[in-house]
């Protein structure tokens, strides 16, 4: 559920950033013939909005949708069953209401709108939902895991669907507001045509002959869309600009109206009078995988893991690696999750003396060595800081180079006892699944404990059980299962004379619904 | 002449096959994490295994190579792992942009380098020194620095050109010119310098030859000697330099395309390589080898036409 690649984060420290892993030009004088906005078009919509995007969809099949950067484009052409408001509240969309019909929370019943059609003319109904969810389960997309708990989907009647789960999944309603909830026209699902052209019920349709893979996508408002409130523009163009220099140039010249920048480029946008939207979606720091000491016996000792946490000067790391934009923290759960405990942000402070003492107590007074992967290109700066700070307390970091394209894969193979990463901070259950479950890439040694099991059990039936969630958070923080440093800010800049933008909680870029024209 | 062309073509095909096979094997030996990259960190190991099977990455390298080769002879290079775009389409839509940029640059470099080189060789003295100094300066500033400066000055400050490319299917000439002018200037400044240097020395060598003295002694005008005789004799050296420049530009566009967000081959190549998009990388390699072979062949043909001695050798 990570929204960015390590490379994107490392872009803060490198000049040429490439990514893997988030209108009528305002300038007026800039030549631009791709933007013949139908000035208002007689509606109260806002002309053409142009966004600079970092990643493009791999396919327009909704089962291949992802999170963050690779969810936003899908929202143009597809509605989801449930709408996630900017603050995270779930609201009706294609489903008018929904509830679990049993106490065990294994049957989720959704009532559907009856006035919706797909852009190919097919009606949206319960059969369409069944077709979509079944397709999602078998199409092996990036988010296929969202459907793991789904046992069966049945159409109760034309506008009612029952989703039956093999075990409770507290994030199911959230998933239905994300990739799992995107509804494509049943006839097109899984076809090659859908790889190239989306067919949904959404507010916009893609203009195929103006859209080019690797370059730009053009969407126009769909006539007769059921919810004009969400259809705020006549046209939305997505310009793929993986290079941050190109993004800032395009923003400053008005060739895009809004885009995500980084710590090396934001001053230029500030200078050009663009408006900042600042929010955090990730945490960065070390994952201390080997809590059982399988690969590196030293990490089995909680004092060693705590010593690592005390060794880092988080404020300095934030200043050096995150351009000073963000908040330091010692916990892996984000402020928008039920597990968040404010005082855990400062649980570990910079205290090399204490770190040395803990290492001595654990029997490592003479130091120890930990092997960590260094992704190239781009990871050099980060690992240099890690190595320096840990060397100060007597820990030697052995750096092993891993090509950036192989980094994630290598982490999951259990070849490293610890590694740097930038990870998404989702709702509690999603974060638990990502960080602590025994199936996640980020728990290669499948470490667990009775305390974690107990909390997981409580959360499984109630994902927002704050008591269990916070107990879980305290446990992993106090026992130093990770060494988080900070929550870096996403620096999203936009032209406030043209568009108003609201941040979307737990999403790398705002939802497409969050951009409103400024009249 | 025909024998020469056929011989060159045959050796070109041999080179193409060797490069393709070597690249394919090397790439596939290190393709262990492609499925994980496509699916992202949320995918379970089973999902990753299923994706590997879907992409055929669970097959032995030689089987994959056989499949790829049998497709390649029918010009079917497969589909991108990451965007599902057929390799042929992916390259087909980006090639015109890159070629337009590179060909425009090389033509400008050819014209200006010849004029500057001739001027320096004929006039010598301060003109020569000035050209030399300019050549060194132009050569020592990296293309991307020139690119960034041009964007800052002409796109951001004066807003004459686009900062990022606007090219899309059906774009008019105006968009192409607006989007490619700055990148072409950046490429030309960089390439012009060394080409002018080489052409200058080729000219000086020719001007020292006996036949020039003989021609002069017959009272033939300096202008005719220069353009009809010396230019023709100096051309092979110049052409070789330009052909190397052309191939160099194919690499040089990589960074320029990133800075200007131009949807060309360079960006495609970098993107595919970082992500491990094997079908696209293979397509790019084939394209590059073909371009190198074709450019060399064209240069040989022109040289043969200019200089009969080359035809027999």
UniProtKB/TrEMBL annotation, chain A:
Residues 90-428 form the Solute-binding protein family domain. The keyword Signal applies. Keywords: Signal, Transport. Its main location: other. Residues 1-24 form the signal peptide. It is found in: Cell envelope. It comes from the Bacteria. Gene3D superfamilies: Dipeptide-binding Protein, Domain 3 (3.10.105.10), Periplasmic binding protein-like II (3.40.190.10). InterPro entries: Peptide/Ni-bd, SBP_5, SBP_5_dom. Residues 27-50 are annotated as: Disordered. The keyword Transport applies. Belongs to the bacterial solute-binding protein 5 family. This is ABC transporter substrate-binding protein.
TrEMBL record, chain B:
InterPro entries: BPD_transp_1_N, MetI-like, MetI-like_sf. The chain crosses the membrane at residues 97-121, 133-156, 176-196, 237-260, 280-306. Keywords: Cell membrane, Membrane, Transmembrane, Transmembrane helix, Transport. It holds the Pfam family BPD_transp_1_N. It is found in: Cell membrane. It comes from the Bacteria. Its main location: membrane. It is a multi-pass membrane protein. Residues 95-303 form the ABC transmembrane type-1 domain. Belongs to the binding-protein-dependent transport system permease family. This is ABC transporter permease.
